[in-house]
Design brief:
There is one protein chain. By secondary structure, the chain is of the alpha+beta class. It has one domain. It is built from four helices and two strands. Strand 1 and strand 2 form a beta hairpin. The longest helix has 8 residues. It is elongated, with a radius of gyration of 18 Å. The termini are far apart. The relative contact order is 0.09.
């Protein structure tokens, strides 16, 4: 995939960045839309969530969303001796 544009951004104290307007237009990022953050050894990619197949959604589930099923006494007991 060819490089279309390169810009810089500043990371805030809270770890936030602003995606430059021109880049948002190229990739179709709109206010309020969900994005996927992919972390590799040597790079980080931001992609619109719509680019992902439903089969990949479990890989994107956050610890918080899984906590209701994983943070139970039953789970603690099951994993206690491992």
């Amino acid at each position: 995939m060819p490089l279309l544009e390169m810009r810089t951004a500043t990371v805030t104290e809270k770890g936030q960045i602003a995606i430059p307007r021109d880049i948002r237009k190229l990739e179709g990022f709109k206010e309020g839309m969900k994005i996927v953050i992919l972390a590799f050894d040597n790079k980080v990619e931001l992609r619109p969530l719509k680019q992902f197949n439903e089969k990949m959604f479990p890989a994107l589930a956050s610890e918080k969303s899984l906590a209701k099923d994983w943070l139970t006494k039953e789970e603690d007991e099951a994993w206690k001796h491992l």
